[in-house]
Design a protein that fits this description.
adenosylhomocysteine nucleosidase activity; methylthioadenosine nucleosidase activity; 12 strands; Rossmann fold; 5-stranded mixed β-barrel; FL_hydrolase_MqnB; binds the ligand O=C(O)c1cccc(C(=O)CC[C@H]2O[C@@H](n3cnc4c(=O)[nH]cnc43)[C@H](O)[C@@H]2O)c1; 6 helices; Futalosine hydrolase; alpha/beta
C-alpha cells in the first residue's frame, strides 16, 4: 500500500502506477493498481494518516490479502543543504519530532518519559534498493504536527536530529499503523520547500509532484528485486 496525505499526491503516484479499480472502505477509498498496489489518500497529519492506514491494513488482513509493505509518500520540507527543492528523500529512520514533553531543560521525547516509540526503521536493504533505483538521498525524515516556519526551529530540529534530511506530517503515523500489523514501512518525500522561515512563494509543489511520479516509476520495478528476508 502507498499512503499519501492528499489526493494530488496519490494521483502523482498513480501516474507511475496507474489505478485500475476503486475500493470503498469505511472512511477511505483505495485505488488499486493493475500491479497490485493499493493507493490511499490517508489525510493530513499523523493522527488521521495513522487511522486511515490502520483501517486499510485491517481491511486487507480481513480480506485474506495482507500487505507486504506500506509506503508513506508525499511532498515535504527539505533541510538545506542536503535536500534541495525537487530532490527525493528516502527515510532510513521515520522519527516523530514533537511527541514528548517540554521542560525547562529542553524537549524530552516520549521514550524518555517511559512511553512508546519515536522512531521506526525501514528495512536497510529496502532503503538501499530504493535509493539506488531512484537517486533518492537517504536520511531521517521527521514527522511534525506543526510545519516548521522559522530558522530557529529548523536549527533546533537539526541539532536534535543531525541525520534529518526532510520533514513531513504523516510518516510516523503511517509507520505506527504498519508496525501494529507487523508490516515493514518505507517513507519517501519529494521536497517542495525548504524547512525554515515561512515563504509560500518559494514552494515548488508541481516540481515535487513530478519528482514523486518519476521516483515511483523507478521504485516499483526495483521493489520486485527486493527480498524481504534480507532485512
Ligand atoms: O502554510 C505554510 O506555511 C505551510 C508550510 C508547509 C506546509 C504546509 C502545508 O499545509 C502542507 C502540509 C502537507 O504537505 C507536507 N509538507 C510539505 N512541506 C512540508 C514541510 O515543510 N513541513 C511539514 N510538512 C510538509 C505534509 O506532509 C502535509 O501533508 C503549509
Amino acid at each position: 500500500m502507498v499512503a499519501t496525505a492528499v489526493p494530488v499526491e496519490r494521483d502523482a503516484v498513480a501516474r507511475a502506477l496507474p489505478a485500475a479499480e476503486e475500493i470503498r472502505l469505511p472512511g477511505a477509498v483505495l485505488c488499486r493498481t493493475a500491479a497490485g498496489w493499493d493507493l490511499l489518500a490517508a489525510g493530513v497529519g499523523p493522527a488521521l494518516a495513522a487511522a486511515s492506514a490502520a483501517g486499510a491494513l485491517t481491511a486487507a488482513a480481513l480480506a485474506g490479502r495482507p500487505y507486504g509493505l506500506v509506503v508513506s509518500a508525499g511532498i515535504g520540507g527539505g533541510f538545506a543543504p542536503g535536500a534541495p527543492v525537487g530532490s527525493l528523500v528516502v527515510a532510513d529512520a521515520v522519527t516523530v519530532a514533537d511527541l514528548g514533553a517540554e521542560t525547562a531543560d529542553g524537549f524530552l521525547p516520549v521514550t524518555e518519559l517511559g512511553f512508546g516509540n519515536v522512531t521506526h526503521r525501514p528495512p536497510e536493504s529496502l532503503v538501499r534498493v530504493v535509493s539506488e533505483a531512484t537517486g533518492a538521498r537517504t536520511g531521517t525524515i521527521l514527522t511534525v504536527s506543526t510545519v516548521t516556519g522559522t530558522a530557529a526551529r529548523a536549527a533546533a530540529l537539526r541539532a536534535r536530529h543531525p541525520g534529518a534530511l526532510a520533514e513531513g506530517m504523516e510518516g510516523f503515523g503511517v509507520a505506527e499503523a504498519a508496525a501494529a500489523h507487523g508490516v515493514p514501512v518505507l517513507e519517501i518525500r519529494a521536497v517542495s520547500n525548504p524547512v525554515g522561515p515561512r515563504d509560500r512563494a518559494a514552494w515548488r509543489i508541481g516540481d515535487a509532484l513530478a519528482a514523486l511520479t518519476e521516483g515511483f516509476g523507478k521504485l516499483a520495478p526495483a521493489l520486485e528485486s527486493w527480498n524481504p528476508h534480507e532485512h
